[in-house]
Amino acid sequence: MANKSGSLHVVMFPWLAFGHFIPFLELSKFIAQKGHKVSFISTPKNIDRLPKLPPNLASSITFIKIPLPPVDGLPENVEATVDLGGLDVAFLKKAYDGFEPDLTRFLEDSAPDWIIYDFAPYWLPPIAAKLNIARSFFSIVSASTVVFFGPSFHAMINGTDPRSKVEDYIVPPKWIPFESKVAYKLYESKWIVGASNLDGSGASDMYRIGSVIKGADVVLVRHCREFEGQWLNLLENLQQRPVMPLGLMPPKVEKSGLESNESWIAIKKWLDGQGKGSVVYVAFGSEVSMSQLELGELALGLELSGVPFFWALRNPSGLPEGFEDRVEGRGIVWKNWAPQLNILSHDSVGGFLTHCGWSSSIEGLMLGHPLIMLPFVIDTGLVARILEEKQVGIEIPRNPVDGSYTRDSVAKSVRLIMEEDEGKSYRGKAKEISAVFGDRELHDGYLQRFVDYLEKNVRKST
Asked: 0.85 exceeded by the pTM?
């Protein structure tokens, strides 16, 4: 529990995905900066892959390595979703649930003041409550996404959400009392119907989310009242739990250390040779896996657009034959590590073709770039609907049934956002919204209010 100096001990327990590790790590760093101790728990391989801590925080954040329990069907080297390849994520969830005994022992031995956990450990809140540890669920997705997932934690846990067919999810749910276009397309709905059903891990995603909300003293959301603030109020009303926005947590553009990095030197040289605002940056995060047809149509669409592009693509197998030769000089496919924020902040970049992950969307908009949106997984379609409503970008048109798209739809969307008069309003709205998304003082204020809340709501020792 809190020591005599008033310093708290906070445990962080993220899900096994890099899109979750990084927001949890950024929150850990802010808590540590305020004089508190943080224990960040994950597997050895995942912790070794995390960004290095700033020297001034190295003594305040302790990485706790707990080996991932073995599960039949899960290879030994798989410790995060990025390692799965074509394997079912249910195997990874089952292994994650196997953390329960080791994590329980750690909590018993270390007696922290708070534990901040992700969507998956439905078994954790009762353990922490029994040990008199204050509990918080940190949703790395937006408030609108959590609202869409279900009308209450009771409905998520008991399976009483009135929606059961894919068609039920292509309209906004009845519990949204204001006008909104937040809904899945038909081809996206198959995921959420599956997420509501029991999977091979022994618990559905909706059961997991409902359970972690039910057991939380406070629900944390990467969201702010200045952008779609009505969703925060609605989430609190539906879930009957205090909801605390953490702000958008816009990352800092780090310049130091890159001057001597060979990759960045080569990237910057290419970007320096392009016109101001002329380049579309293309990136889909570490989790999106495209079919050869999807990759091919995207590549041929970029070629057809005539627009300069920088495409960060770690696995380029499946690109159309001769593609890179044909676009040489105008477009580049970068197959190694690429510093996304530094690229997005370069003067030559004027737009962002993205899968619409919440983190990537924040990074693009904080720097004022309109988005060309091609969502693929889980919450990204819902994020795209919200951002299209706000007119800061457009979705590439797709077949509503199977989600396929064509090179022509890619090319037209890229040209509209980057070059055409019709795209001026999107470019202007993106610049306008960057005043909110990039306001570090505003978002640090949210984080500070959360740290104040942590300090004031420590459970008394029994």
From this structure: yes
- Secondary structure element (H or E) that encloses residue 359, with its range: helix 358-366
Rounded CA-CA distance 26/460 in Å is: 27
Instruction: Choose the catalytic residue: 9, 36, 97, 118.
Output: 118
| Residue 330 and residue 239 share a domain | no
Name the packing angle between helices 424-437 and 358-366 (round to 10°).
100
- Has 97 been annotated as catalytic? no
Nearest to 107 by CA among 28, 39, 42, 60: 39
One-character DSSP codes across 118-136: -SS-TTHHHHHHHTT-EEE
The pLDDT assigned to 333 comes to 96
Q: Is 118 a catalytic residue?
A: yes
pLDDT tens digits along 123-133? 999 999 999 99
Judgement on whether residues 117 and 146 belong to the same structural domain of the protein: yes
CATH of the domain at 421: 3.40.50.2000
Give the sheet arrangement for strand 61-65, strand by strand. 61-65, 37-42, 9-13, 114-117, 134-139, 218-221, 243-245
Residues 39 and 142 in one domain: yes
Domain extent for 325: 262-437
In a domain, 276, yes or no: yes
Structurally, the chain folds into a number of domains equal to 2
Q: Tell me the C-alpha distance between 353 and 373, whole Å.
A: 6
Residues 287 and 226 in one domain: no
Where does the pLDDT of residue 377 fall: very low under 50, low under 70, confident under 90, or very high at 90 and above?
confident
Indicate if 135 and 221 belong to the same structural domain.
Answer: yes
The beta strands (E) that lie in 133-278 are given as: 134-139, 218-221, 243-245
Residue 3 included in any domain: no
Q: Which of 9, 20, 346, 369 is catalytic?
A: 20
Query: d(Cα 196, Cα 89) in Å, to the nearest integer?
Result: 15
- What digits encode the pLDDT tens for the residues 52-85? 999 999 999 999 999 999 999 999 999 999 999 8
State whether 240 and 304 are in the same domain.
no
Q: Is the pLDDT of residue 2 over 70?
A: no
Q: What is the pLDDT of residue 316?
A: 84
Phi then psi dihedrals of residue 300, to 5 deg: -70, -30
291 and 397 inside one domain: yes
